[in-house]
Give the backbone structure.
Amino acid sequence: MPVTRFAPSPTGSLHKGHAYSAWLAHGFARERGGRFLLRIEDIDPTRCSSEKTLGIFDDLVWLGLEWETPVRHQSEHRDDYAAAARSLAERGLLYPCFCTRRDILREIERAGQAPHGSEGPLYPGLCRHLSGDERAARLAAGEPHALRLDLAAALALTGTDLVWDDALEGPQIARPERLGDVVLVRKDIGTSYHLAVVHDDALQGITDIVRGVDLFEATHLHRLLQALLGYPVPTYHHHPLLTDPEGRRLAKRDRAITLRSLRESGISPADLKKELGFPGP
Ligand code: GLU
């Protein structure tokens, strides 16, 4: 029985793109007699608020979605993500990174040709090369730091032939090197999107992940994390993103197209669903 989820971050208002994604995930489960879960990805207290979360509930009720309760709020499960990070750290798969954004940019400029991954320049490895003594001294001094994945160490454990399936794009070989030594524990919030999402999808038994193609590249890393943490591998359904008439991706900051404003303008969810290409009732 398939289990899908919609996992918004309450950092702003939902827009048509979220409605599209949520309806796809909901429909996938409903058409197959499966389960649909809602998860609130609110690990970043500087960008998320309970007011925005309530707004998301209003929007999803308006869309006609029904989900199981209790809803998982990531902000209430920081211990889980800390335990997952600990399990990686204990195997030497994380290293502390003391760099600021500026340090990283400066190093990329200095090196001239920094290797680029799918998401931009890769972390140039400054803190990967610190000596054990320097690392210990900076940690003992309480210097703020993130924890990064030591990709080489991780791949030495898992091998490089991990695979995952995308329902639209077909079988994929995981290529986490396209993302490099990513931060898995942010210095400000003590976890990261990647760690929390992979943990929760496993914990909640999600079998089919329906989400936008903007997260396709992240899946290469997620597959590696699943292997490292002993989690099952769901099937992915990365869907195209909705664009505006100029071909630009819909973004949360574009207030005109929020679901709330559509709702207030009197459009019905059925009209919106039709506009987004779903077959009528
Ligand atoms: N919370 C993420 C977002 O709002 C989505 C996570 C996911 O679907 O994996 O972009």
The chain has a mean pLDDT of 94. The first strand starts at residue 3 and ends at 6.
